[in-house]
Amino acid sequence: MFLAMMALETGTTVRAQVCNDQLSNVQVCAPLVLPGAVNPSPNSNCCTALQATNKDCLCNALRAATTLASQCNLPSFDCGISA
Predict the structure, then answer these.
(1) 4 domain-assigned
(2) Is-contact 22 57, C-beta < 8 A?
(3) 49 close to 29: Cβ distance less than 8 angstroms
(4) Using alpha carbons only, how large is the chain's radius of gyration in Å?
(5) Do 23 and 58 touch, CB atoms closer than 8 A?
(6) CA nearest 55: which of 43, 45, 63, 44?
(7) Residue-wise pLDDT tens digits, 23-79
(8) Does pLDDT of 5 surpass 60?
(9) How far apart are CA 67 and CA 10, in angstroms?
(10) Higher pLDDT, 6 or 65
(11) What domain range is 53 assigned to?
């Protein structure tokens, strides 16, 4: 049982690290989504990073970001975005 729990925990840690690495790569897209972006069209680096990013990693990060306000005891916000 202990080994099964260790394997589960290790798998979760590995997945978290993979997501962290993939999400770090998507930072090349940041200039396109920041306020005041001059050219909001993605370049090949951004498109390649998005293609290489696991969709669950990206969606989970966005979901987590939307819950941070309530976890910090701040008013929630709705960006009016639907996919």
Answers:
(1) no
(2) yes
(3) yes
(4) 16
(5) yes
(6) 63
(7) 999 999 988 888 887 777 888 999 999 999 999 998 888 888 888 888 889 887 777
(8) no
(9) 26
(10) 65
(11) 9-72
Q: Helices then strands (H, E): number in the chain? A: 4, 0
Q: Which helix (H) or strand (E) holds 44?
A: helix 44-52
The pLDDT assigned to 14 comes to: 64
Does residue 81 fall inside a structural domain? no
How many domains does the structure of the chain reveal? 1
Please name the residue that has the structure tokens 């990693």.
57
One-letter identity of residue 39: N
pLDDT tier for residue 83 given thresholds of 50, 70 and 90 = low
Instruction: Please state, in angstroms and rounded to a whole number, the distance separating the CA atoms of residues 75 and 83.
Output: 23
Contacts of 50 (CB under 8 A, 6+ apart): 26, 29, 42, 58
pLDDT score, position 38: 75
